[in-house]
Specification:
Blueprint lengths: L16 E3 L5 E5 L5 E4 L3 E12 L2 H4 L13 E12 L5 E14 L4 E5 L3 E7 L3 H4 L3 E16 L4 E4 L7 E3 L4 E4 L4 E7 L13 E7 L3 E4 L14
Antiparallel strand pairs: 1-2, 2-5, 3-5, 3-7, 4-5, 6-9, 6-12, 7-9, 8-9, 10-15, 11-14, 12-15, 13-14
Length: about 230
Amino acid sequence: MNQQLAGFAPTPVTARMENHGSTMLKVAMATGQDLFARTGSMVAYEGFIQYEPNPPAVRQIASQWITGEGAPVMKCSGDGLLYLADYGADVVVINLNNDSISVNGTNLLAFDAHLTWGVEKVKGLAKFAGQGLWNVVVQGTGWVAITSRGTPIVVDCGRGEDETYVDPDALVAWSPNLKVKGKRSFKAGSLIGRGSGEAYQMAFSGQGIVVVQPSEDSTDRLRIRN
């Protein structure tokens, strides 16, 4: 039986964060290298690892979290290997190098605790959404893991002069330096999105990337907050 299951055994550690398969994240934990992770995302661990849900240091930063119920984040510390997952969603690992990324809060799985982060309002969309839209911006040098409902596509917005249009329900993350604006279209209602009648898209322009997932079934993406 051990030989039959050998192909699923943990692989040697090569980086702070890496995939184990497409839907699981493996994090090499060490003393002094704390991690913030989505509450409830731990599926297994080896060694000595402690968890602190919604730690005090996070509460003020995340007071404007999309759900309005506090930050769904736990602090992980200790030594060992930590395995995280989010209901079978694909996991994408990003190594920031003095860079930043804006992530839909529902797609943020884990990030190094030393990174700077905060919940920010998406500019240029208030007149379309009423109250406005919010995202989590993570910046610095370190590791970030995001999730996608299916294998995502990464669109390079700097390849041409045309804007890139994305259904908000399929949006995962983007470069914060991109310009964002909303667009309404009555003719595209049957082609973009699942609703009928008016279609709403987000338009991106400038130098940077947009990460899009092949799913728009969730109703909690980029929630509108009062």
